[in-house]
Amino acid sequence: MILDRLARAVDDRLRLSPLTRKALAKVFPDHWSFMLGEIALYSFVALILTGVYLTLFFDASSADRVYHGAYAPLDGTTTSAAYASTVRLSWDVRAGLLIRQTHHWSALIFVAAILVHLVRIFFTGAFRKPRELNWLVGVTMLLLALANGFTGYSMPDDLLSGLGLRIIVSVVESVPLVGSWLVALGLGGEFPSDEMIPRLFVTHVLLVPAVLVALVSVHLAMVVRQKHSQFPGPGRTEHNVVGARFYPNYTLRSVALFLWVLAVLFALGGLVQINPVWLYGPFAPAQSTSPAQPDWYVAWGDGALRLFPPWEIHIAGHLVPAPFFPGVVLGGVTFLALYAWPFLERWCGGDRRAHQLLDRPRDHPVRMGVGVMALTFFAVLVVTAGDDILARLLRVPVYDLLNLLRVLVLVLPVLAGALAFLLARALRRGDAARLGELTRADLRAARQPADRGDAEAAADEPELPAPDRPGERVELWPDGDVWRWRYRDEPAGVAILSNRAVLTEQEAAESARLAYPGVDHVLVPGPPPPPLPGRVRTALRRWGNRALGVSLLVAALRQRRDRRRGGHGDGPDRR
Amino acid sequence: MSRRARVPAAPPGVNGRIILSFLTSAAGAIGFAVSYGLGGQTQWEGGCLAVAFAGLATGLAIWGRRLVPTGGYVEEHEGFTPPPAEQALTAAVLTAPDSPIRRRGLLAALGLALTALGVAALFPLRSLLPGDRTSPVRARRDTPWGPGVRLLTAAGRPLRPADVPAGTVVGVFPEGGTGAGDAPAFAVRLRPERFTRPPSAGHLDGLVVYSLLCTHAGCPVRLYLKGAGRMLCPCHQSSFDLLADAAPVAGPAARPLPGLPIELGPDGYLRARGDFTAPPGAGFWSRR
């Protein structure tokens, strides 16, 4: 009652109900892969929640501090305040280790979810017009996520992260002309400077998260404004979105997903140890650990540094050191290519139309080939980042393995890309529904060059406003004071209800015309019968009815027998 | 339509499952609180919290799947190209005769002022540079080593030649600059007749001192392969041959480790005769 009156009071002043009604009825298409971005979002929320807790205990300073606490091997030693406070947070603050490990796991899963989300967007062509802007925002967020992961990883000032930071500093230093200046600007001195940790801290907890929050908002606002893209299917066109409504279905499901993400993150944070800085020891410029591997999302950079041959060039007598190429050039080219892809594809493919329907990955063999090639390349780099461990496991000399990987990093992506291209083309040209159903003839046909009329025809085909199919119609009916409509394709057995009730028949007709242009409208007297129950449910109901009938019969027979015996109807033993 | 329609009956068993999930969640939450109160055990805390969240999630997921309408709704999509008339109307508003964007001269002056302000705002970035106003390239090249600087061990004691027996690597630091990031070096005793290339910084009876920092990405090369006389970097597996003036022999490093010229001081301790033969650590844009 109170809520009801409060809502009314607010609405009388802000007139929110029309907007709210539309927002609550917003339709999201159903597909498991549309949840990947949400996983990233919810890991980000978990990162903020756990991160705020950590800032209350972390001392971002490289000043000396004596650690006194439960971790005996370090008790009484003098280290930097950052390291000492991290060890204290892990050993002496209740629930501190749980929150710290959950934070670290959240970061790993955050970047992983972003990456898988990006791969999904890429292979389904969801970055095409009108969603290029959101692709740019997304790639920027990936970049910021990497940056924040790295700054966070470096802050505890332990030996392993110190090595990682030193490597990054070396990569920045390798930039021609301005490298040393960039490092001096960033660190306020030579590595390891006293300014380093406070600056990393401010970047990690303020600058980057603030930008990320802003970009997340922009990203989501654009998804809401542009509406979610969907896979092709019955009743799904370029002019509508078919799925479940935001309220009540998606609200419940999305909150459930958020809680699932939290459950997994806290289970990992509690049960799986990560980054035990007390074992690595504090950073010292003359110390190193072996083996030394970074977090997974920078492993491609580390792998590239290991793989690149010792080639250095001199320009006008100045040195351009080897890390410049695998570090700065590769990273720059990677992100430039990501930023440029939607526009490259548009210029090369000539497809300038807006798309609300997604591609299946096979629909665009070139994109498939390029994507698989890039993913294979980065996979080899990630494997290379563990080459010393791999060599020990396989009992082969590390340099033999390195030489092998140097070949593989060039050969494997090309092979994998070509194979993916061929398979996609075979799937598209043939009529195999799945990879397993491909025949040899399909593959042979895929090797033929494209005859115009196959790929081109599909791309140039104008969108039909109304696929001229008999049996398709839009039904409108009054439901009390309001109007509803639904789309029906009788031969296909499809019936899709409009997502909201509207006040007039015109409104209903207008939204139906937008969603299904050109489809005939029919006025029907009343709400259509409830959807037929599925086969299982019908069978269950039939069996249930039979069981009920049989039990009634049995009960009646028993009652008659009891009465005949002259006893009282219900025996006292039943009670 | 009546304002308070009856809540439809749930399919059998659904309510029970949802309630069970929420009760499990509550049990997890209580478990977390108890575990925290009893002193906090990370595994229990994490496990209980996970159960609490998973219970809630399961309950809500069942609710969302079984008790509310799920799929089969359609919403129209208006498209994003507005009708040309509307576009023209908006453009007309923006470019009306008295619109600020029509006064080109004023706009140019405004742009100039804003550019000046923007450039001025960049100047405080200079304060991020080190306070002592030395050029970073110069600072990068100079280390605390210099003529007469004594070699200290990690424990802070001055080093005698006898402190470096054959076959061991001893980390050394400059007196008065032990904490510097670019100063760490190591001393090692080799047999002079095994040198394939004489050390560029010279040697004292086979005793040589090199920078500890890898010339690839600056990691300390801590792994000594005694038989081969090689130093290995644990970060990217660059390998340096100490018998050939610390030349890189494998891995991604391209330049030899810089040597440190040393001599025996009158007090019997080792001291440097100057700085490293080249800037230590990773390479940077510099004239060599």
TrEMBL record, chain A:
Keyword Transmembrane attached: yes
Cofactor(s) listed: heme
Chain intervals with Basic and acidic residues compositional bias: 446-455
Keywords (A to Z) from UniProt: Membrane, Transmembrane, Transmembrane helix
Chain residue ranges for the region called Disordered: 446-471
EC number(s) stated in the UniProt entry for this protein: 7.1.1.8
Protein name, per record: Cytochrome bc1 complex cytochrome b subunit
Organism classification: Bacteria, Bacillati, Actinomycetota, Actinomycetes, Micromonosporales
